[in-house]
From TrEMBL:
Organism, as annotated: Glossina brevipalpis
Domain EGF-like: 24-60, 120-156, 158-193, 195-231
Disulfide bridge positions per record: C50-C59, C146-C155, C162-C172, C183-C192, C221-C230
The protein, known as: EGF-like domain-containing protein
Gene Ontology terms: biological process: anatomical structure morphogenesis; epithelial cell differentiation; Notch signaling pathway
Keyword set, alphabetical order: Disulfide bond, EGF-like domain, Glycoprotein, Repeat, Signal
Length: 254
């Protein structure tokens, strides 16, 4: 505490500046405030202005951030969609080889049904932690144990699960702790890594050789046939067939 020197009125040995209360000790000189608190010197005392993580007369008490009620975080329709069963339903309704536009349209349709619910929804929150399993209080701080797919100091960051996943020109749709690849034409698989064999069903006719290509196939037709599937008999081939038929018919009549 500060103190004042009050000389006796009859004591004339004191200089003039000592004849009235003048001297105040700086109580902040010894640094009484802990944990980075700012000391404010007062007449006969001091006051500590503490950082948000500490409280008490000299900032000696740790604030438990996990017990503080923070404003609820509003959930957008997009984030609600990404964490809901509507995502699974939308994806289940489209095959892995479906076009990007078809799958995105399905997701948008699911999103519209969730918009009203999302308007009043809030994220899972524990103290300052959003989308977290647990909030751990630490001296002067806190730690958020995030749910799968979330990160950052308060678990507010949704990890981009699409990085480096979809192949061969596929469109990746980022989900919470998951992703979905809308494959380009001609590819299939979890990451659209498999080229679909368009020759598997033997589309070429009349002995044509099928050559598998990306998203399509090509028929190499035998002599006398043409067309996409070798389905057209050329005029020369037709003439030869008719000629052979005519000769055979004539032989039968003899």
């Amino acid at each position: 505490m500060g103190f004042l020197i009050r000389p006796k009125a009859e004591d004339n040995n004191y200089p003039n500046f000592m004849k009235s209360p003048q001297l105040d000790i700086d109580e902040c000189a010894g640094g009484p405030c802990e944990h980075g608190g700012t000391c404010i010197d007062l007449i006969g005392g001091f006051r500590c202005e503490c950082p948000p993580e500490w409280t008490g007369d000299v900032c000696q008490i740790d604030v438990n951030e996990c017990e503080i009620t923070y404003p609820a975080v509003q959930v957008t329709a997009t984030s609600t969609l990404r964490t809901s069963t509507a995502v699974a339903a939308a994806i289940a309704g489209a095959s892995t080889s479906s076009s990007s536009s078809a799958l995105i349209a399905a997701l948008n349709a699911a999103s519209s049904t969730l918009a009203a619910a999302a308007a009043n929804a809030t994220a899972t929150q524990l103290g300052p932690c959003i989308n977290a399993r647990k909030c751990v209080n630490l001296p002067g701080s806190f730690q958020c144990i995030c749910l799968e797919g979330w990160g950052g100091p308060t678990c507010a960051k949704d990890f981009d699960d699409c990085v480096g996943q979809c192949k061969n020109g596929a469109t990746c749709i980022d989900l919470v702790n998951d992703y979905h690849c809308a494959c380009a034409t001609g590819f299939t698989g979890r990451d659209c890594e498999t080229d679909i064999d368009e020759c598997a069903n033997s589309p070429c006719r009349n002995g044509g050789e099928c050559v598998d290509m990306i998203g399509k196939f090509n028929c190499i037709c035998p002599l006398g046939y043409s067309g996409t599937l070798c389905e057209i008999m050329n005029d020369l081939k037709l003439f030869l067939v008719l000629e052979v038929f005519h000769i055979e018919s004539t032989s039968d009549d003899i």
